[in-house]
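Escalation from tier 1.

The customer reports that the assembly of two entities below gives different structure tokens on two consecutive runs. Tier 1 could not reproduce it. I'm attaching the input and our single run for tier 2 to review.
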Amino acid sequence: MDKMPKWADVVLVPVVSLLLAAIISAIVFLAIGQNPWEALKLMAYGAVGTSDFLGYTLFYATNFIFTGLAVAVAFHASLFNIGGEGQVLLGGLGAAIVVLLVPWPHWTLALIAGGTAAALFGALWVVIPAYLQARRGSHIVITTIMFNFMASGLLVYMLAGPLKPEGQQQVASGLFPEASKLPSLNDIAEMFGSDMFGRSPVNISIFIAILACVAVWALIWHTRLGYQIRALGKSESAAKYAGISAVNITMITLLISGALAGMMAINNTMGINSPQLVDNAAGGAGFIGIAVALMGRNHPVGIVIAALLFGALYQGGAELAAATDVQVQIVIVIQALVIMFTGALDEMVRSPIEKLFLRFGRGTAVEE
Amino acid sequence: MDFFTIVQLGDASVRMAIPLLLACLAGLFSERAGIFDIGLEGKMLAAAFLSAAVSLASGNVWVGLLAGIGISITLSIIHGLASITFRGNQLISGVAINFFAAGLTVVIAQGWFAQGGRTPSLPKDARFNGLDFPGALTRVRDKMQASPGMQFYSEFVSGHSILVYLGLLTVPLSWWILYRTRFGLRLRAVGEAPEAVDTAGISVVRLRYSAVIIAGILCGIAGAYLSTAVQAGFTKDMTANRGFIALAALIFAKWRPWYALGACLLFGLFFAIDNRFQNIQLQVIWIMVLLVGSAAVMTVYALRREKIDVLVLGGLSVVLAAIALVTWFGTASGEGIGMIAALWETVKVPSQLIQSLPYLFVVIVLAGFVGKAIPPRAGGQPYVKER
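Tier 1 run:
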């Protein structure tokens, strides 16, 4: 059977899905009495209008690259890790403990130690759901959702008690030592005499995120483990027949996924302008990761593009909410629409496009 | 704890259990027909908002209930489109519906009422109010002095809104539909072996759509109950994860209506305890027994299994034992008393832990240590007709 060209699958289908999501979002704007075109202009300006705004967009995009990769790695094994939110919080906890406990002399050391701790804590938080999925067949979706709730409970307990410095009002950890603060891109720009990115918190974590993309790409498509992950995702029975241990691969895949989500903490706790761990540290990034992975077709390049798009949406949505009476939750609506169209209604978008290509293709074949 | 407190706790458990029960039965119909429904939460939330908004606008709570059911069915049909017609991923569709409802309810509520994403309070005649049975006492002071039988009648039996009694009636009704009607037989069959149903000349698609629409109706009632009977109006995220807990209760109930009632009452009790006892004190010795005991049980279980079990459960046991020891040593040094004396000291259980208990219990239930649950065989798989 003929298939449509690869570019249509990779570019055209997501773009059409995005357009459909945009149309429905426009209807939502009309329903609450806002002009969709004006809203779009406001959001676009809020996302990339100034170099400060652009910096925030990149900052959020860094978050979403990590969580998007986390969801994507699990998707390759046909596992749905919806617990990114909790794993991010635990990652933040790990990073905060390590950075507050040890006076790191230089930010590079703090980055290595904090990043490792963040990844470790994120991975640990998925151990039990992963084990229950692998050994007891308990559904990973529900267990990870439960672990999200427990993570926020644990975080509030830690931030209201052990991690809170004496006399501090805010429910948060103390400020991290100055020496461990990651350089922001603005710091780097200043070295060249520019004030690019202004006060925005975008920092060198964005390069770590890109490195993580390369690592995931290499892992999934160029290692034996990656092959086993994909084999398990395609068919569990075939993978078992080929001698792949479903239990081990399920565990390892989810641990990697949790570690990637946890790593986001280097950006949103160690990288921000006044680095500390706050109680809503994840801010929904774990869930946006689902939309990012689906839109990016679980490929690191796609994930970077989708993360930039969602970074812009998140930042633009925040500016829109500040400037108008629209609640910031409009971002969640758009995110839901993207998940729906690219994830669940994929066939609805794909099959008409496919048919179009087939008809077009046959037309040229007759001419020859 | 006196008798009246127990009655009050039972009363609160029933009230908390009703939305769980309705959502649980919604999931039951859907999953029995082979369609996973993670989106129960979103459907309830959307129904909670729209029924509150429409009750407010029309002044008639029954119209509001219908509106809530309507929006819930609409979302169900979208879920059906994604998972039946277009054979998409049912989990992803459910997740999308949850986010859609969570975001849209707040955005629209702000757009319509401009009160920060909630509806204004509903007046008394635009709500489902408690029905007082003949002879039942209504004032708390009178109830406290009444005889136990009267307390039970007045507090536990009487005084609920009509939706509570309707909700309880859905249990025998669901049982009857599923096990005593032709439709129910076919519905159960389509979740186990859709190809057999198809071979018999019955439409798989139509059966599955009917199942998700029934789920929509039940979620709609559950949502309306939350915003028009439990509370007077819609607030942001007011379903508070009940949709997910209902799914866990469904597994606990092994996909059976009467078991679902039991499971939901149990979870209802958890929430009632949560609400009533924010401040639970435990003696250190009980904490030691609980934590070290469960650690020991897990270790013994793991040692008879494979390496991975030893690794994971052993690690968890070490963590639990460590928490127990830290509590013990911490109490001893904090109070400046001997280790043995510290065992009888009481410590406050963190309120965050108490709030997490229902979720923890869900995980334990899902772990299957509370009995084996076998889901419908064709659950989650789109049906592709053989060509």
